[in-house]
Amino acid sequence: MDIDDAMARNKPKLDGPSEAHTEEQRKILSREIAAESSRVRAGLGAEPDPLAAELPGVQLPRVELLGVNALEVGEGQRAGPRRRRSTVLATAAAVVVVGGLLASVWYSTNRSNSTTDVIAASPPVETSASVTTSAPVEASPQRTHRRARSDHHINFGTAPGSSAAHRTLGRRLDQHHRPDAQSGKR
Amino acid sequence: VRQSVGVDSDVTAMRASVDDPERFAAIFDRNHRVVWTYLARLAGPDIADEVSGEVFLTAFARRAQFDAERGEVRSWLYGIASNMLRTRLRSEGRARRAFVRAAVIVMTEEPDPTNLVDDADQIAGEIEVLRGALEKLRRDDRELLVLFAWEERSYAQIAETLAIPIGTVRSRMSRARGRLRELLHDSGQLLDDPNSKEAP
Predict the structure, then answer these.
(1) For residues B116-142, b (16+ Cβ closer than 10 Å) or e, as one string?
(2) Is residue B120 less than 8 Å (CB to CB) from chain A?
(3) Dihedral of the alpha carbons of B166, B172, B174, B180, in degrees to the nearest 10
(4) What percentage of chain A exceeds 70 in pLDDT?
(5) What are phi and psi of A69, to 5 degrees?
(6) Hey, are the CB atoms on A17 and B162 less than 8 Å from each other?
């Protein structure tokens, strides 16, 4: 059995649209035609296509907008010069963005390393006696907590180039200074 | 609308309708039934009722963009109908369900008396198997086979309808026939070798 024969032998037989449906469609189209005729007679010219932007599926007009004859270039090659140009521009923009991100990451990493090296190489700072012997400053628990959180966020948590170890230390400090943590309550 | 049905061809009427919109009525009268039937074979009468009117409203709104050098008016209308149906049945699942509903309607009809096969049960069985196999095809392939075998469009007209080169139509038709043959062979409906060479 040939495929075309099988298809032809089983061709669905349909009666066509009902007369009522056809009449209804005629009326709708007639109204459109009458409105358009009035515009043309009034010298307004044909109404701009209101569906042009809403029906991307309609092929021939869409291809015409690109200035390319679909029958000449074929499916998958419909992109005209304008679309090719926009594709190149989009690719170039993407390359610039990705390059910028990579450069940012590289800069942050190097900056973090150099800071660590400086800290490791610097001599220990001697603590001033006046500081160690001075009377402790009374501070409210809330204020201490606020300052600790602030230190954590500025110096450890969100500073560019901060390492995971720094962030962990920040979290521990944060917990230590939290009033609830000190009182043993969570 | 009817009064404007004249002797001019679809192309002439389409061109004239740009400045004289009433000439478009002839396009509707000559092609509405054909477009409706095509839509009904693919998706059933209900969807054909809904979409066929939109096809002609769209064609009327875009009549100035019609280019006779790219194909005939009916191919253009088929193309609009195909795309509007695709838009409406966006997913493959919805398209298949619509096709199955159309199949149920077709199978309830009386067998074709001109059919050489006498056994009504066999005819019904064959329709069912063929429909089942068509349903498993990709939507594009199914559309192509329906345009060729049921709408009796030539390769050139299908190329105009789908806006693809005629060589692409040939290769896709070959692929669709091969796939359908395999499906029918698997079902036991087609007894010849599914790998046999495709007829030109």
Answers:
(1) eeeeeeebeebbbbbbebbbebebebb
(2) no
(3) -140
(4) 38
(5) -85, 115
(6) no
Confidence of residue B186 (pLDDT cuts 50, 70, 90): confident
Q: A16: left (phi > 0), else alpha (psi -120 to 50), else beta?
A: left
Beta carbons of B57 and A36 less than 8 Å apart: no
CB contact under 8 A, A59 and B79: yes
The pTM of this model reads: 0.56
With contact defined as beta carbons under 8 Å apart, do A152 and A174 qualify?
yes
Q: How confident is the model at residue A15 (pLDDT cuts 50, 70, 90)?
A: confident
φ and ψ at residue A23, rounded to 5 degrees? -60, -40
The question of ipTM being above 0.85 is answered as: no
Q: Which residues of A touch B24 (CB under 8 A)?
A: 29, 33
Q: If pLDDT is split at 50, 70 and 90, which confidence band does B7 have?
A: very low
Residue among B8, B18, B19, B90 nearest B59 (CA): B18
| Mutant choice from A19, A28, A29 vs B, greatest count of B C-beta within 10 A | A29
Tell the residue number behind the tokens 């050098």, with chain if given. B69
pLDDT of residue A25: 92
Q: Distances in Å between the alpha carbon of A50 and those of A64, A108, B53, B54, B153?
A: 16, 52, 16, 13, 31
Average pLDDT of B71-85?
92
| Cβ–Cβ contact A65 with B under 8 A | no
The CA distance from B80 to the nearest CA of chain A, in Å, is 5
Contacts 24+ apart (CB under 8 A), B4-9: B5/B29, B5/B30
Q: What angle (nearest 5°) sits at the alpha carbon of residue B146, between those of residues B144 and B150? A: 140
Mean pLDDT of chain B: 81
